[in-house]
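step 3/5: co-fold with BES
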Amino acid sequence: MKIDLSLSKKSTKRAEILGIGCFEGPHHFPKGYVLENSLADILKKLSSEKKFSGKCGESYLVLSPKSKAADVVLFIGLGKKEKYRLSCVRNSTAKLLSQAKSFQHSFAALDLDSLAEAFSINEVAGAAVEGARLSDYRFDKHKSKPTPKKDISLTLVSQEESASSSIRAAASEAEILSEAVYFTRDLANEPANIMTPPALAKVVREMASKNNLDCTLLTVSQMKKLGMGGVLGVCQGSSYEPQFIILENRVKSKEAPIVLVGKGVTFDTGGISIKPSNNMDHMKFDMCGAAAVVGAMKAIANLKIQTRVVGITPIVENMPGSKAQRPGDIIKCMNGKTVEVLNTDAEGRLILADALCYAERYKPKVLIDIATLTGACPATFSDIATGLMSTDEDLVRRLKEIGERTGERMWELPLWDEYADLIKATYADIQNISKKMAGTITAGMFLKEFAEHTKVWAHLDVAGTAWIEGGPKLLTPIGATGVGVRVFVRLVQSYTKK
Ligand code: BES
Ligand code: MN
Ligand code: ZN
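step 4/5: write tokens
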């Protein structure tokens, strides 16, 4: 399906289906919004007959609305005005398009003005584009007969003529973000026999050269020289060489950069501490952190953001085998700290340890890592929130705010000193698993040991949010979500002086 996004003061072409957002309660619309008379009568009747009240998730299809604008009107419930978030706009757009598709419509329109409560028309337009694009994603390249996509166009309608150039800018920004999310989802959905460490590195290198990013790959001998015992230990059992990629946007500024670090385990068998076979296929998604960093860098380059950003991804495959590391092995990471590998399945933190040490060479003003790190994280948050741990209150505040805005919520867990005892080792400095529960926090505490010279650091555990299983969601089919891409871009923008 192709979505053609155009903006106009009034929809020039009559739409087959028009989506109009409706809040819950007596005043369904933002202040000053005027609904066509014929539609206003219908809506009044619907609410008095209790057929539609505007609750979030509710929608009502009016088949012959006698409207000037469209053949069919879809009233989309937005919930209470006090609880309104941009996610409602994304979801409403997705709902409209899925309705249009089920009717085989090819011309849909969305009334932006009905959605502009509490947000500017630009923000609403951007969110609508994101909702349209993100919900339209498919990964069917490996099907010999992919279901054909029907052409559909979506017109965003607004009476706010004065804002039209800034609406356009917001919409094109959303296009760039969505394209980056698609790139990330594509990388992550690819199976591990195809997206091997060298294959992933190749795709990233090609992306970098097409998108005006500097790309450096460390050689294995450089990794050895740097003392990256974590990366080298985890990859031992694999027949593929480890990859270590550094991406950098091209800006004039020599300021301390924002550094993003993403876990790239192309497949996590658990190694010698092997995982049970149930759902082990999901471990092709264990490189979602790396994919998010790479996607964010692509968007940052295409948006021509002038803040200096560095993206770092250690990439390995975690396999058992005669050369694999064993439980009890002791390794030395890049900063000289020694680790007792009590469980070879807690591998993400080992490669991230070296990547964080490497990141610290840039003296980052902000350092963030993203990783499908612990099964304990979705045990707490399911796929509703990303686990957030940080050493800086201001960064937490920014991330939580951006989480609300992007719809990718993050929630903080503590990194109190008391938790450090749980990873003190008998034979080395620290061990890679906890002595006593707190799986997500102790993984965060472990990483903190390798970001110790950076004041402003955060760790995002996306084990629950990086992909969706079970059934599709409005904005994502089953598979990789691309979580983190939009968050990183918004975060970098929040540090960028306008
Ligand atoms: N990649 C996994 C974490 C994971 C598990 C993500 C399930 C998503 C779903 C990670 O490498 C891992 O295996 N973690 C272990 C750590 C444990 C051995 C301390 C876990 O969570 O079980
Ligand atoms: Mn593991
Ligand atoms: Zn893993």
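step 5/5: annotate
The domain at 2-157 is CATH 3.40.220.10 (Leucine Aminopeptidase, subunit E; domain 1).
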